[in-house]
């Protein structure tokens, strides 16, 4: 008689590394999907779907992220205050000028699970508009994401 057992990775392999990614001239969606895989831990051999086996990710230069086509003027970001008539709408261009970190965070959050595990994984993402970050003490490794380089359309 065989019984199925839930796989639990050994505790010594559960170390979380820190990676820094430069978003300069990267495509938003392709970069976000790669970052979501690293946050989830899908790039590791001991990946387990119901556990946090991923790494910390620091994204720098979020203000230099690229999008293709007419997304710069037509893509809309919506938020609601919770009050009647409280819907606020903003284009990609305006939000990038005001809060460029939120664009990258929004794209990555949509690619994570919609449950308590997804909320826990999202706390391991750190996004900064400029080239500097305050996480030098964690000694993050440079992570190269091979996406299509941005082209002005």
Structure description:
This protein has a domain at 16-67 and 100-142: Alpha-Beta Complex (Ribosomal Protein L13p, Chain: A), CATH 3.90.1180.10. It has 153 residues and is α/β, with parallel strands linked by helices. The mean pLDDT is 92. The strands form 2 sheets. It has a 4-stranded parallel β-sheet, with helices on one face. Strands 3-4 form a two-stranded antiparallel sheet. Helix 1 crosses helix 4 (100-109). It is built from 5 helices and 6 strands.
Estimated helix fraction = 25-40%
Q: Low-confidence stretches at least 5 residues in length (pLDDT < 50)?
A: none
SSE pattern, N- to C-terminal = EHEHEEHHHEE
The strand order across the widest sheet is 5-2-1-6
| The CATH architecture of the domain at 16-67 and 100-142 | Alpha-Beta Complex
Average of per-residue pLDDT values: 92
The CATH homologous superfamily of the domain at 16-67 and 100-142: Ribosomal protein L13
Number of helical stretches of at least 4 residues:
5
> Which class do the helix and strand fractions yield?
alpha/beta
Examine the coordinates and then state which fold CATH places here, giving the name of the CATH topology of the domain at 16-67 and 100-142: Ribosomal Protein L13p, Chain: A
Shape: globular
Beta percentage is 15-25%
What is the first-to-last residue Cα distance?
A: 62 Å
Sketch the major β-sheet. 4 strands, parallel
Radius of gyration: 18 Å
Identify the CATH class of the domain at 16-67 and 100-142: Alpha Beta
Number of strands: 6
